[in-house]
């Protein structure tokens, strides 16, 4: 039996209703066949037995033939009763018959190698499995469904068309090809650059959806920041006391706000202090507040925020239970105004999350930025007297940058585009 | 019993691949035989009377840089030289010349007849002697046999050639010549993957019956760009071509008679080139166009025959006459020879190694149209590659392969061997990923040293090359020592910031809009630099930034090329390759990782798997 038929438990380890063991490789069916009388076509119920004839379990067996499987090679799934002992004995039997336990991610890797998934889809899949919030799930699914691949394919098509137009003026002089290709090339390149620009802007939002937004609660000491945090978190995450300067370190609480992952930060109250430890806490508070996506400034009635708010930041009167009937105040103690505050934070973050497209990683952004830079250079050069061969070279570079997101370019594509559109040949 | 002669290399066919192969092998000092049906047909231009063009001109320069024959012949026979793409970048400029057919053929025949170690044998090669799967000899139709371990087959369109004019078809390798059926059947015995292609020619016109006074005329360049690095100027009298156009009436005639065309009437199965469509194709595929350009190219100084470029056809004779006469200037034209389509067998070039030797039959080399290419230039370049490797094999030397990063020849051979052909293969500049580096002007800098090592570059060329290289080096040194302020450079009209830093003259030449004329304008005291040398320096400078950017890619390709994949590799044994890729790799048997990379359907992940396997293999062999 060839060593390249792999198997692994595909569901979480431990007791469960069902445990699924997946077998993938050219000889998947033969390997599975060692455990049962016959491997079903499609699906079927089978008794699994060890080589000495002992019954291991009664399992639902699914058979995926040819490349119609997740990995793009023959796959057999054994749906076992979810007992660790059964799983252990089945895995042991499979190894005994010459199968190899899969390495981490090996099924997905095979899907990539066999062209079932592109690189972006693999990234989307990883995110999908890790998704905890609704927004993460939707985003991962968008990428896994091939959203970025489809977009890159479209950019690639447009860039190849632009390159083909220029190549046609190079390789087919004296022939019946369009003489001035500048307007179409310019329109194509501009469209791609604009599309990329939207996606580049969205990467930051996408990263926030995946990794969580940071919201910092900032204000003077003893204004009720920690009490607010505890109220929002629904538990006593931070120590609260009447003593100003109780919070020294930054306290983080993970939450799900309207489907978005949010890390709430409670920070030290900002004031001049001679206490060395408190001073470190204050500078840490300022630093984290500056890097957070959103700041909620708690202020005393009529007081200015501790730092200058930027667009989207919220300024709220703290200890509103004591402050009287304020326009917008909160009290962590009584819960007054909490729903309104959560509503405002959620609305603001959802607006930002809405910018996210299908490009979700720094890798995507840097490839798009590189392509975009080349395209800008070509657009500028189009109207100068730059020779066509240099324009073509820059477009080729842009195409390769786009390909870094998912695939790769081929000169045959250029020629196909040329031949399908023009009358070549005198 | 016939006396059996022995040769190091035997070339079959005297077309452009065969002539170039015979020339190259003889330059290397091997004993060579050229077997051809008719001695007087050697070097005939059987299609259009022109050499060069875009991509093709690059090939001719490379052949010449390697000491080949085609550039010299084309210069001697050139009656109109034009440098195509003159207004575009120098990397994509292609020299082209119209040739006098007679002068061209005579030049080739004379050059070959002067070679003492070349024997020209008239006869039809019908069979190969093969022992233990290796070539040991060639058998002719008269039963005679030539002993050799290396045969270069350059049979062009002759393998089971069929000529079509309308619904009339007959076997033939070219009008006036018989097809080679025996050799085609012999090749079939080797179990080679054969395919069928077609190509076409236009009717030939009698120039005396053309009303030239009505036509727009296109002259050649006043300052001709020649093919050979050894030529100084045009040798033959220079002429102009006429230009006419098809019109609505022409298209109507063609449309009405489409069913009578061999191609549209269903008589032809072969695939034709998309870039050289017949006039029927143009009318059907580009129905919205009501006119196509037609170049009227005289076939020589001593003949009246004119080649109307752009209207190749397989329509019946009476239709050809009608549509040709519908064009202005051709109202009373007489057709000397009808246009025809020709279908022929080709061998899927994926059956070849990069040396153009058949994988399944060591000692048998194929070059030219038999490999699915079209064009004299493509054929000649392959003839050179095959002959060089045939001679090296005769001497038990390793084969020489041409790389995509060094030459168009390398691009072509790699394309053919790696990807095969779906239509007759023609060179384009866009096929070369390192186009900016592979210029027509620097073909000698890229290849002449290699040619000298191989033995195809003679003493005279080698001396001229060294003189030129020395001059370029000196010129670069001088220019690197001249400082120019940005203001001085901008003063000549170049676009740059006048407050920018000063540059050396060499650096200033990297600017698109700053050349030697501008340089001498601000530094008239600089020593004179020869025009050709100056042009080379300017071109190198112009692309310097781009080429630097490509250096990483070039190095990566060199590394991939150096990663050899053993011929005997069992791809099924390498884990992690899909069944489909294993099958493709088994069929292609790539010689290096560079070749594997270009296999259709190859994924980056699979390449990782493959290179990992080769690395493990390598370390095992070392230890």
Please mark out the parts of chain A with pLDDT under 50 across 5 or more consecutive residues, or reply none.
407-411, 421-426
Shape of chain A: flat
**CATH architecture name of the largest domain in chain B:** 3-Layer(bba) Sandwich
CATH topology of the largest domain in chain A: Rossmann fold
Q: How many beta-strand runs of chain A? A: 11
Spatial order of the strands in the main sheet of chain B?
16-17-18-19-15-20
The assembly state of the depicted protein chains is: heterodimer
From the 3D coordinates, which CATH architecture of the largest domain in chain A would you assign?
3-Layer(aba) Sandwich
| Amino- and carboxy-terminal Cα gap of chain A | 59 Å
Helix content of chain B: 25-40%
- How many helices of chain B does DSSP assign? 20
- Alpha-carbon Rg of chain B, integer: 26 Å
Low-confidence stretches of chain B: none
Explain this structure to me?
The complex is a heterodimer of chains A (426) and B (623). Chain A contains 14 helices and 11 strands. With 426 residues, chain A is α/β, with parallel strands linked by helices. Chain A has 3 domains: 6-116, Gyrase A, domain 2; 128-208 and 361-407, Up-down Bundle (Four Helix Bundle (Hemerythrin (Met), subunit A)); 212-353, 3-Layer(aba) Sandwich (Rossmann fold), CATH 3.40.50.300. In chain A, the strands form 2 sheets. In chain A, strands 3-4-5-2-1-6 form a 6-stranded mixed β-sheet. A 5-stranded mixed β-sheet of chain A has the order 8-9-7-10-11, sandwiched between helices. Chain A is flat. Chain B folds into 4 domains: 5-155 and 182-198 and 344-454, 3-Layer(bba) Sandwich (FAD/NAD(P)-binding domain), CATH 3.50.50.60; 204-341, Elongation Factor Tu (Ef-tu), domain 3; 465-556, tRNA uridine 5-carboxymethylaminomethyl modification enzyme MnmG/GidA (Arc Repressor Mutant, subunit A), CATH 1.10.10.1800; 563-622, DNA polymerase, domain 1. Helix content of chain B is 36%, strand content 17%. In chain B, the strands form 6 sheets. Chain B has a 6-stranded antiparallel β-sheet with strand order 16-17-18-19-15-20, with no helix packed on it. A 5-stranded parallel β-sheet of chain B has the order 7-3-2-11-22, with helices on one face. A 4-stranded mixed β-sheet of chain B has the order 1-10-9-8. Chain B is globular. The model of chain B has no long low-confidence stretch (mean pLDDT 90). Chains A and B meet through helix 3, helix 6, helix 13 and helix 14 of A and strand 18 and helix 20 of B.
């Amino acid at each position: 039996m060839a060593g390249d038929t792999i198997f692994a438990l595909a569901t979480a380890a431990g007791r469960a209703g069902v445990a699924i063991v997946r077998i993938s490789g050219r000889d998947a069916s033969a390997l599975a066949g060692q455990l049962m009388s016959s491997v079903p076509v499609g699906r079927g119920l089978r008794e699994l037995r060890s080589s000495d004839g002992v019954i291991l379990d009664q399992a639902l067996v699914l058979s995926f033939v040819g490349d119609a499987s997740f990995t793009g090679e023959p796959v057999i799934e054994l749906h076992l009763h979810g007992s660790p002992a059964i799983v252990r004995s089945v895995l042991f039997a499979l190894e005994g018959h010459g199968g190899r336990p899969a390495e981490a991610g090996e099924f997905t890797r095979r899907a990539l190698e066999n062209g079932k998934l592109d690189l972006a889809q693999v990234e989307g899949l990883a995110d999908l499995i890790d998704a905890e919030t609704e927004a993460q799930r939707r985003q991962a699914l968008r990428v896994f469904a091939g959203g970025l691949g489809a977009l890159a394919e479209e950019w690639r098509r447009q860039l190849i068309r632009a390159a083909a137009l220029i190549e046609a003026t190079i390789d087919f002089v004296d022939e019946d090809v369009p003489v001035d290709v500048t307007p179409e090339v310019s329109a194509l390149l501009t469209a791609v650059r604009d599309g990329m620009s939207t996606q580049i802007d969205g990467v930051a939002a996408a990263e926030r959806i995946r990794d969580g937004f940071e919201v910092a609660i900032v204000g003077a000491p003893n204004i009720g920041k920690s009490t607010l945090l505890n109220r929002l978190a629904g538990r006593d995450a931070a120590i609260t006391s009447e003593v100003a300067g109780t919070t020294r370190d930054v306290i983080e609480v993970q939450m799900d706000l309207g489907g978005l992952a949010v890390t709430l930060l409670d920070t030290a109250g900002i004031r001049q202090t001679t206490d060395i430890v408190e001073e470190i806490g204050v500078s840490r508070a300022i630093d984290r507040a500056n890097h957070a996506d959103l700041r909620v400034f708690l202020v005393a009635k009529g007081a200015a925020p501790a730092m200058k708010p930027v667009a989207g930041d919220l300024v709220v009167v703290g200890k509103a239970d004591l402050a009287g009937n304020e326009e917008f105040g909160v009290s962590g103690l009584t819960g007054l105004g909490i729903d309104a505050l959560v509503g405002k934070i959620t609305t603001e973050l959802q607006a930002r999350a809405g910018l996210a497209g299908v490009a979700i990683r720094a890798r995507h952004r840097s490839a798009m930025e590189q392509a975009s830079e080349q395209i800008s250079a070509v657009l500028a050069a189009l109207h100068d007297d730059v020779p066509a061969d240099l324009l073509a070279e820059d477009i080729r570079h842009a195409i390769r940058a786009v390909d870094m997101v998912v695939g790769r370019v081929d000169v045959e594509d250029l020629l196909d585009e040329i031949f399908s559109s023009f009358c070549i040949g005198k | 019993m016939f006396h059996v002669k022995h040769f190091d290399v035997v070339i079959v066919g005297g077309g452009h691949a065969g002539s170039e192969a015979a020339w190259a092998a003889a330059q290397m000092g091997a004993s060579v035989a050229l077997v051809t049906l008719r001695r007087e047909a050697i070097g005939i231009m059987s299609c259009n009377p022109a050499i060069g063009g875009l991509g093709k001109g690059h090939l001719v320069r490379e052949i010449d840089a390697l000491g080949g024959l085609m550039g010299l012949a084309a210069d001697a026979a050139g009656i109109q030289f034009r440098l195509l793409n003159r207004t575009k970048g120098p990397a994509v400029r292609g020299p082209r010349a119209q040739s006098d057919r007679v002068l061209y053929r005579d030049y080739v025949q004379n050059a070959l007849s002067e070679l003492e170690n070349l024997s020209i044998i008239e006869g039809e090669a019908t069979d190969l002697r093969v022992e233990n799967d290796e070539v040991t000899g060639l058998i002719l139709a008269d039963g005679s046999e030539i002993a050799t371990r290396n045969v270069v087959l350059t049979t062009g369109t002759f393998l089971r050639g069929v000529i079509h004019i309308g619904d009339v078809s007959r076997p033939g390798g070219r009008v006036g010549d018989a097809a080679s059926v025996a050799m085609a059947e012999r090749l079939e015995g080797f179990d080679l993957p054969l395919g069928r292609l077609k190509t076409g020619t236009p009717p030939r016109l009698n120039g005396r019956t053309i009303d030239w006074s009505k036509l727009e005329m296109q002259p050649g360049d006043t300052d001709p760009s020649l093919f050979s690095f050894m030529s100084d100027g045009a040798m033959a009298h220079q002429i102009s071509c006429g230009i006419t156009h098809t019109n609505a009436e022409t298209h109507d005639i063609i449309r009405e008679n489409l069913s009578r065309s061999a191609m549209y009437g269903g008589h032809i199965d072969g695939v034709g080139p998309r870039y050289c469509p017949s006039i029927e194709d143009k009318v059907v595929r580009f129905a919205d166009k009501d006119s196509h350009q037609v170049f009227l190219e005289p076939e020589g100084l001593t003949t009246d025959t004119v080649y109307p470029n752009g209207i190749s056809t397989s329509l019946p004779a009476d239709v050809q006459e009608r549509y040709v006469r519908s064009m202005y200037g051709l109202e009373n034209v007489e057709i000397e020879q009808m246009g025809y389509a020709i279908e022929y067998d080709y061998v899927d070039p994926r059956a070849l190694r990069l040396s153009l030797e058949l994988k399944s039959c060591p000692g048998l080399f194929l070059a030219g149209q038999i490999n699915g290419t079209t064009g004299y230039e493509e054929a000649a370049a392959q003839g050179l590659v095959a002959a060089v490797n045939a001679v090296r094999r005769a001497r038990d030397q390793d084969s020489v392969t041409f790389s995509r990063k060094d030459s168009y020849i390398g691009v072509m051979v790699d394309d053919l061997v790696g990807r095969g052909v779906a239509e007759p293969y023609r060179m384009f500049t866009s096929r070369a990923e390192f186009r900016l580096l592979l210029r027509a002007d620097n073909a000698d800098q890229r290849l002449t040293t290699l040619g000298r090592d191989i033995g195809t570059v003679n003493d005279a060329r080698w001396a001229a090359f060294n003189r030129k290289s020395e001059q370029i080096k000196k010129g670069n040194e001088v220019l690197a020592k001249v400082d120019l302020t940005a203001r001085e450079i901008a003063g000549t009209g170049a676009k740059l910031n006048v407050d920018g830093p000063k540059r050396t003259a060499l650096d200033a030449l990297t600017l698109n809009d700053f050349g030697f004329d501008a340089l001498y304008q601000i530094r008239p005291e600089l020593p004179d630099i020869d025009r050709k040398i100056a042009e080379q320096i300017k071109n190198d400078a112009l692309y310097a930034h781009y080429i630097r950017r490509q250096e990483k890619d070039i190095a990566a390709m060199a590394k991939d090329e150096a990663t050899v994949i053993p011929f005997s590799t069992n791809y099924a044994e390498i884990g992690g390759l899909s069944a489909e890729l294993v099958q493709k790799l088994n069929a292609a048997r790539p010689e290096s990782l560079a070749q594997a990379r270009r296999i259709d359907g190859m994924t980056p992940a699979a390449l990782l798997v493959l290179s990992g396997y080769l690395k493990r293999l390598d370390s095992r062999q070392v230890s």
